[in-house]
Design a protein that fits this description.
By secondary structure, this protein is an all-beta fold. The protein is built from no helices and 22 strands. A hairpin with a 2-residue loop joins strand 17 and strand 18.
Length: 318
């Protein structure tokens, strides 16, 4: 994995592209994220498959957003657990997630008959049963555009990617070409505990970047990387972020500091999700397609998430 693996506390192996034995913790989960955006930020989306073996179910999210488009959102939190092949089938969809070459490529095939169409993304926090619907289909491949980046303190890795394939929404078929990131993690994750910010994008000179920080009451060298075009992935530490929020809780902007590369974040389109704990607590997750404006004039697009568990405004957001 190159120099990036030197910072990991566990050896990243091709086998880690598969599923892992579940821990005993009730909130143990395994998660695969795959996001994408066109180079001009006009169209974007993401897929997330979360496995919760101790709850005997999976979560599945998929969305499509874009300039002048409503949010198209599929959310199912009661999907039967898939086998090791990660082929899932819910009430209104079926999907496969095939690692065609470990650490190099992954293909998603999704067929959804009834994804919600939301003129206002805040409607995602309500019951979607009465929402207008449309069909949604992805046939997309994420091909690695750099090394995998393993976190140093949890079993998790990120891969900057080029993304190509076909999207169908309603009667519209779109030949997609763009970029994105895929993310794989496993272990205990408490959606109703700490808040966090996660961000990933690509600038117009071809540089990928990623950063993450959580609000846990103390500082640490939060993980981040940059991957210049044609160059090796550069591990960096000390990612920081400062965010502004409206009264509705949706972020209006943020300032990110990937060391040596400060930038401003402008949310363009939201695809949020609400999650209810076994105890009835609700967390909100306003994930957004964003424009990134680097201080040196470079521009880019990607995704940022601001996780908002109960009481998140008191978590010391900066």
């Amino acid at each position: 994995m190159g120099n990036s693996a030197d910072h990991a506390t566990w050896p990243l192996r091709p086998e880690d592209e598969g599923t892992h034995p579940a821990g005993a913790e009730p909130l143990w989960s395994e998660s695969v994220y795959l996001d994408f955006t066109t180079e001009d930020g006009a169209l974007a989306g993401y897929v997330r498959l979360g496995l919760y073996p101790n709850w005997n179910r999976a979560w599945y999210w998929a969305c499509l957003v874009g300039v002048g488009r409503p949010t198209v959102l599929l959310v199912d939190h009661h999907v039967p657990l898939p086998g090791p092949d990660l082929a899932v089938r819910g009430e209104n969809f079926q999907a496969t997630h095939d690692v065609t070459l470990p650490m190099r490529s992954l293909r998603v095939s999704l067929e959804a008959g009834a994804a919600a169409v939301l003129s206002d993304p805040a409607l995602a926090y309500r019951d979607l049963d009465g929402a207008a619907t449309t069909s949604l289909a992805f046939d997309l491949e994420w091909r690695s555009a750099g090394e995998a980046y393993p976190y140093g303190f949890v079993p998790r890795y990120e891969v900057p990617c080029e993304v190509e394939g076909t999207i169908r929404v309603g009667g519209e078929e779109i030949a997609f070409s763009g970029h994105g990131e895929r993310d794989h993690s496993w272990g205990e994750r408490d959606w109703w505990g700490p808040s966090w910010l996660w961000s990933s994008g690509r600038l117009d000179d071809g540089t990928f970047f990623h950063g993450m920080r959580a609000n846990v009451g103390f500082e640490m060298p939060w993980p981040c990387f940059t991957a210049p075009p044609g160059g090796a992935l550069e591990h960096r530490e000390g990612f920081t972020a400062a965010s502004e929020f409206g009264e509705d809780g949706f972020p209006s902007g943020a300032r990110l500091e990937v060391p040596g590369m400060p930038m401003t974040v402008v949310p363009l389109a939201f695809a949020p999700v609400a999650m209810t704990s076994p105890d009835g607590e609700v967390a909100r997750f306003p994930r957004a397609l964003c424009r990134f404006e680097a201080s040196d004039g470079r521009l880019g697009y990607g995704w940022t998430e601001w996780h908002q568990p109960p009481g998140w405004r008191g978590h010391g957001w900066r």
